[in-house]
Amino acid sequence: MVTTSDTDTVQVEIVPSRFLTPKTAQHLLEEIYENGGIIRIMIHGPNLPRTVPYGPGRGTPIDENKDLLIRIGDQVLELTVKVGRIRLELEGDQYYTGLKAACERALPFSFQIKKGKFFPDRLTVSGYAKYGRVEDERLLGLTDPKAKKNKLAMLSDQKVTEN
User: Fold this and answer.
1) Is 63 helix (H, G, I), strand (E, B) or coil?
2) Using an 8 Å Cβ cutoff, are 117 and 11 in contact?
3) Residue 78: enclosing H or E segment and its boundaries?
4) Which residue, 69, 96, 135, 142, has most beta carbons within 10 Å?
5) 5-59 tens-digit pLDDT
């Protein structure tokens, strides 16, 4: 009989019942970050356009979507999407209960937490086209082949690196 050990990684998806405001998203991401055990995290949602994409006001800047900066730990990132769901990979199952408690503290409305397989194990065709050979396996599954520019930020103890 095959059993999973505590050293196996756990992939989790957090699905709030509504889109998160930047303030709520920052609070939730801080709580998740303080819980620890994160290998990689991906934020899903529709893009926040910087200008009006169509209609009579096409090209007019949207001021409310400008400078949406969130702080995670001691690092600052620009939020480019409305946060609709968060996928993350944890180092082990022992971090799952802390993650659930962090979500309950940060989200004032209902949400779902699903365990499953959300990140691929090996390089996909679109990932190879975007990055070539990948040495850091945390990048696997974090590609958006339709993105005009790369919107990927790697958090580390040293600094934030944006690609």
Assistant:
1) helix
2) yes
3) strand 75-78
4) 142
5) 445 889 999 999 999 988 899 899 999 989 888 888 888 888 888 888 899 989 8
pTM exceeds 0.85, yes or no: no
Superfamily in which the 1-119 domain is placed by CATH:
ACT domain (3.30.70.260)
End-to-end CA distance of the chain: 43
The domain limits of the chain are: 1-119, 123-163
Q: How far is CA 58 from the centre of its chain?
A: 29
Q: How far lies 98's CA from each of 74, 122, 159, in Å?
A: 21, 28, 25
Pull the structure tokens for residue 64: 């409310």
Per-residue pLDDT tens for 58-76? 989 888 767 788 887 777 8
Q: Residue 82, Cβ neighbours under 10 Å: how many?
A: 19
Q: How far apart are CA 108 and CA 130, in angstroms?
A: 38
Residue 105 and residue 124 in contact, taking contact as beta carbons nearer than 8 Å: no
